[in-house]
Amino acid sequence: MAATIRDVAKLAGVSVATVSRVMNRKGYVNSETEKKVKKAMKQLQFEPNHVARGLAGKQTKTIALILPDITNPFFPGLARGVEDVAKQNGFTVILCNSDDLGVKERAYIEVLKQKYVDGIIFATHNLLPEDIERMEEFGIPFVVLDRAPMTGSGCIIRVNNFGGAKAAVQHLIDVGCKKIAHVYGPQELITARERLAGYEEAAKAYPWYTPTLLAPGYFTLEGGLKAVEELLGRHPDIDGIFAGNDLMAVGVLKGLYKKGISVPDQVAVCGFDGVNLSEITQPELSTVAQPIYQMGELAADKLIERINHSSSQREVIELDVSLIVRESTKKCR
Ligand code: RIB
User: Measured from the CA of 189, which atom of ligand 1 is nearest?
Assistant: First the structure.
């Protein structure tokens, strides 16, 4: 079987990213290391896919953004920020929707590689270490956003999910809530896990806390609606609900409305994201706002910087979130 970049890296005793830098003649590699890598390539008769990359040595001035769910209003906001910065720098954006499926994500990586995109921004969470190695092998710069895994040598841009969730619970306490439930997102997503952890960190300080105050909402409207039935069925005396994203929070508002429960006087509701939808609900939704547009701008800026300067060092950037107080939590104490 033909030798791979991983075999070369192992034999030379360096990382895949170093072998990629030698192959693509991009970024700094000291002469000793370069000799070791080239010796290993020769020993393994490793034939890098130089021809194709050579043909496309020049920039195609295109970048790709792979989103997990274009029906969720959080992602178009992200895409807007990416596209505006890309356009300012003369790049076109190829938008891909993976339906949160790893198999679709990997298929997109292959197609985008064949189209010689200059770089990829991932807002998905299915990337595997071997996917990251493949991109390093082909010298494709990448940035990961939001829920993406914290592995690899790319740039990772995320927000303080844990702190934001704690702030949401504290706000509900401050407005007088005495028993607060949490509708959580899919726990395979780091963003949902960290918000659940933030809720529990805050809630466990109170005698009313019990794990039965938790219900899944799958980051969807429908999920939030159903979670209300489950939670109030178990705890009719709940007077505050923190939902792990705004879509679920809107579903919670609808669920409470259908049960004739007034918001915020009987039950106060707080979401997470700060999508535009939270401004047009009745009552308007209090939420922990993410800097969605700015995350997109920063991701595009960082990717273009990596494309132009062939840097591939690992970089983790965590942005702050901010509580926006609206009608859905303005209880009369
Ligand atoms: O609403 C979609 C959610 O998925 C957002 O909270 C975002 O952080 C992503 O994880």
Answer: 10
| Report field, pTM of the whole predicted structure over 0.90 | no
Question: Which residues does ligand 1 sit against, CB inside 6 Å?
Answer: 72, 74, 146-147, 189, 191, 219, 245, 247, 272-273
CA–centroid distance, 184 to ligand 1, in Å, is: 11
In this prediction, residue 313 has a pLDDT band, given cuts at 50, 70 and 90, of confident
Phi then psi dihedrals of residue 331, to 5 deg: -75, 150
Say if CB 106 and CB 131 are below 8 A apart.
Answer: yes
Q: Report which of residues 66 and 59 the model is more confident about.
A: 66
**Spacing, Cα 74 to ligand 1 middle (Å):** 6
CA nearest ligand 1 atom 6, residue: 245
d(CA 273, CA 161): 10
Which of 239, 228, 229 is closest to 179 using CA atoms?
239
pLDDT digits (tens, 9 = 90+) for 175-229: 999 999 999 999 999 999 999 999 999 999 999 999 999 999 999 999 999 999 9
Q: What's the CA-to-centroid distance between 275 and ligand 1, angstroms?
A: 10
**Dist. CA 72 → ligand 1 center (Å):** 8
